[in-house]
């Protein structure tokens, strides 16, 4: 039984998703027929411009904002860079203190490390064992110098959903700008900018069946922000450079579909997630179940399996045609333990044997059954080679 015989199963939807067929269909005309520069003052340009504004309304519809509060950017990563650097710069005279959590996405943490080098002070709040930030911690760390709070909506590794609305309320009371990285949430769970009391929010299209290379930063009307990219006139001067018209059109359609089908998708994904969780916990011993038991994404399962090597487990799964992810990244030089699992107190030797499954709307119950059948055998085989496995509990 080689790699070729098994049906390929993709369970890494947090890394990226395939485009929905309707997204691809909608984008198609914008490569050759409606190819104009949206800034051009002729028919070709007007058509492209109109398509952008239609898509903007659809993205706004998904997050319940005004269309003019949506700025198109190239990715979730860019949205996070823009939010953090843009607010830091615009408010540097007011103060230089920023509050965030220790389990944010790398694009937030790395940007903040960069800002620290130019004199900003950053407080990295700890999380509890489920990965939840305590809103009281946020409140107690606010100083006269605080200009920005940035807490992610949900964590892309462990799926935990943060108490963003509550934190937003605190920020609002204290008159501090609040950003949330919703790249793992938007399109999968409801993120309503008003219910959440956020001033800025990052969204990425390829996380919910839209194309890669397009995302949005929501900026509440009236909030001042310095551009990341300087140039012409696009996006009201806040993010210039020619627009990714096909990408924006696809983003719009993906947002419209996600908004319309959110409940249907959630009701499809949740039982699959629970079946996978239950199957693994029942059939494999010495397993850590990571993330919050209820406040979590409907498509995420994060487990750490003791007494097996993470990379060997991933490779064995791959041989069975199952593509999933590990929370720890193995580079050429070293094994980098997930900062998120470290943040929730998973011991490093366990964290390095973690698996992150993220289920998509194209997965079936058979896919989940296959994992439940295959994984225990892989674990058993790898443990048979382990000198430290103490045997079944
Ligand atoms: C995927 C993701 C990002 C980065 O988005 P890209 O569009 O892939 O650059 C940032 N934050 C979170 C929580 C994510 O899941």
Describe it:
The longest helix is centred in the last third of the chain and has 39 residues, at 245-283. Strand 12 (329-330) and strand 13 form a beta hairpin. The chain has 393 residues and is an alpha/beta fold. It is 39% helix and 15% strand. It has a seven-stranded mixed beta sheet, with helices on both faces. It has helices at residues 21-27, 29-32, 43-63, 76-90, 106-117, 135-140, 164-174, 245-283, 310-319, 339-343, 348-351, 365-384; strands at 9-10, 70-73, 97-101, 121-125, 146-150, 177-181, 200-204, 215-219, 287-290, 300-305, 322-323, 329-330, 335-336, 354-358. Helix 1 packs antiparallel against helix 8. It starts with 8 loop residues before the first strand and ends in a 9-residue tail after the last helix. The chain is built from twelve helices and 14 strands. The structure holds pyridoxal-5'-phosphate (PLP).
Q: Which structural class best describes the helix and strand composition?
A: alpha/beta
Number of strands: 14
Computed over alpha carbons, the radius of gyration is: 22 Å
| Uncertain parts | none
Continuous helix count: 12
The N- and C-terminal alpha carbons lie at a distance of 31 Å
Helical residues, percent: 25-40%
Provide the β-strand percentage band: 5-15%
Spatial order of the strands in the main sheet? 2-8-7-6-5-3-4
Main sheet makeup: 7 strands, mixed
Bound molecules: pyridoxal-5'-phosphate
> Could you give the order of the helices and strands?
EHHHEHEHEHEHEEEHEEHEEEHHEH
């Amino acid at each position: 039984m080689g790699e070729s015989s098994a049906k390929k199963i993709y369970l890494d939807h947090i890394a990226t998703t395939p485009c929905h067929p309707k997204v691809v269909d909608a984008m198609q005309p914008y490569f050759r027929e409606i190819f104009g520069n949206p800034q051009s003052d002729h028919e070709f340009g007007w058509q492209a411009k109109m398509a952008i504004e239609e898509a903007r309304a659809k993205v706004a519809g998904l997050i319940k904002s005004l269309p003019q509060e949506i700025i198109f950017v190239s990715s979730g990563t860019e949205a996070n860079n823009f939010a953090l650097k843009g607010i830091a710069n615009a408010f540097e005279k007011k103060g230089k203190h920023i509050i965030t959590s220790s389990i944010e996405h790398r694009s937030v943490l790395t940007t903040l490390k960069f800002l620290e080098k130019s004199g900003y002070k950053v407080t990295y709040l700890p999380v509890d064992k489920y990965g939840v930030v305590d809103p009281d911690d946020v409140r107690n760390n606010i100083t006269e110098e605080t200009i920005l709070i940035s807490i992610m909506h949900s964590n892309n590794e462990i799926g935990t959903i943060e108490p963003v609305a509550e934190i937003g309320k605190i920020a609002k009371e204290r008159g501090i700008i609040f950003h949330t990285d919703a790249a793992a949430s938007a399109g999968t769970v409801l993120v309503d900018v008003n219910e959440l009391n956020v001033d800025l929010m990052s969204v990425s299209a390829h996380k919910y069946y839209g194309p890669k290379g397009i995302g949005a930063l929501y900026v509440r009307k009236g909030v001042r922000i310095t551009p990341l990219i300087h140039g012409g006139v696009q996006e009201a001067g806040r993010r210039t450079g020619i627009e990714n018209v096909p990408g924006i059109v696809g983003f719009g359609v993906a947002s419209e579909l996600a908004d319309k089908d959110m409940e249907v998708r959630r009701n499809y994904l949740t039982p699959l997630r629970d079946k996978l969780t239950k199957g693994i916990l029942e059939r494999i011993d010495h397993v850590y179940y990571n993330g919050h038991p209820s406040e979590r994404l409907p498509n995420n399962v994060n487990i750490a399996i003791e007494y097996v090597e993470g990379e060997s487990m991933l490779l064995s799964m791959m041989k069975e045609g199952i593509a999933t992810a590990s929370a720890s990244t193995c580079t050429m030089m070293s094994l980098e333990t997930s900062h998120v699992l470290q943040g929730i107190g998973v011991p490093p030797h366990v964290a390095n044997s973690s698996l992150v499954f993220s289920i998509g709307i194209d997965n079936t119950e058979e896919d989940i059954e296959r994992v439940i059948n295959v994984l225990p055998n892989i674990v058993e085989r790898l443990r048979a080679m382990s000198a430290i496995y103490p045997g079944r509990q």
